[in-house]
Predict the 3D structure of the following.
Amino acid sequence: MSELTKSDSGSELNHALVQALLLTLPTAEDTDVVGAALAKSLPPADSGLLIELRGDLGMGKTALTRAFLRALGVTGAVRSPTYTLCEPYEAGGWQIMHLDLYRLGDPEELEYIGVRELDSAGTLAIVEWPDNGAGWLPKPALILVFDDRGQLPGRQLRINAVSAAGGRWLQNVAESATIAHYM
């Protein structure tokens, strides 16, 4: 099942920016495919971008991030930042900061890891459990919400564009042949 929500400026996929995608991901490998598609559709590093990853424990947030980083050429270990809060990477012309705020005691702790620089040009922040950093994080470009519907094998992933840059990025993802059958 797919859901494409377009802006009011047109009715065809090529003439309107996609605002949301609803994908069905039956297996963990399908989550990897979507992570790679997001990476391959990443816009140039001329601004800062933030992706929020939402969903229960074990839904695939870190797995998607790992596939994203691998598709950008990261070959070393890709660790979950559950205990370190932040794991930095450089790839594809981006300084990528993978944050996991699940164990964050107070959003003010983000000041110590340089949260004010997350929206700098060339910085991409991928944030798990973003609600725990409310009020301190920049506005996201994309919000990804994993959901286990119970009646489905695997999970559903809804990707919402919440900025102009996110809309352009999501448009590129929607046009990717590699994810077409998940919609």
Remarks:
- The chain has one domain: 5-9+17-182.
- The helical segments are 28-40, 61-71, 164-174.
